[in-house]
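Incident log, structure service

09:12 report received: a user says their structure output differs between two submissions of the same chain.
09:20 pulled the input from the user's history:
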Amino acid sequence: MKTIHHPADSRGHANHGWLNTHHTFSFASYYDPERTHFGVLRVLNDDEVAAGRGFGSHPHDNMEIISIPLEGDLEHEDSMGNTTVIKEGDIQVMSAGTGVVHSEKNKHTNRDVKFLQIWVFPDRRNVEPRYDQIHMDETKERNAWHRVLTPKDAGVEGAVWIHQDAYFSIGRLAAGTTVDYTLNKPGHGVYLFVLEGSAEVDGQQLGRRDGLGVTATEAFAVKAGVEGVRILAMEVPMN
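09:34 re-ran on a clean worker, output below:
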């Protein structure tokens, strides 16, 4: 088993006033040649958008884009005709494929919105753009892994899918609880991202917003710290 630890305070950071953002992997003006991606996981941005502000219309292509609000509500509009609100507890996916234009804005004028934006390289190019959004059942996270994203043909109820052999799961573990994670495929790795609390994996202590890449293993254990942990596991092909 191999691991790579990315402490929260080692991430790239930019504060534009309306946007306070942290980049786990190289993005925009932040570049680290040792941190350009983890397998097909290309971007993991931890964004905080000020009240009433947001990202204006901008294009994407040939990327699978996943948004997970952590606090507040995010308004979304795109060139496919979708006008939606993504709320805390939701997960949204957008396959940019041949090209899509979208915007994201904090719905509220009196509080910030915090969300993760994640990009994954697709397993094929120039697919027809698509959009999907679900509300996750947080009761399934309790001391277990709740699968929230899969490949298209996995057939997991209550999960969104993308054009990639990727599996995202979220666990909310009580203090001292240990859960095992078994990888779905050989050649995959798992990038763990601590949303809240603390945990231990293979002797490595992880705090809030720390990341840990795990490779060269079929399974591993996550043990929650004294305050418990909510953690996102992103399993992706490494090649």
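09:41 both user submissions now match this output. Likely a transient worker issue. Closing.
09:42 reviewer note: The mean pLDDT is 97. The two ends are 17 Å apart (CA to CA).
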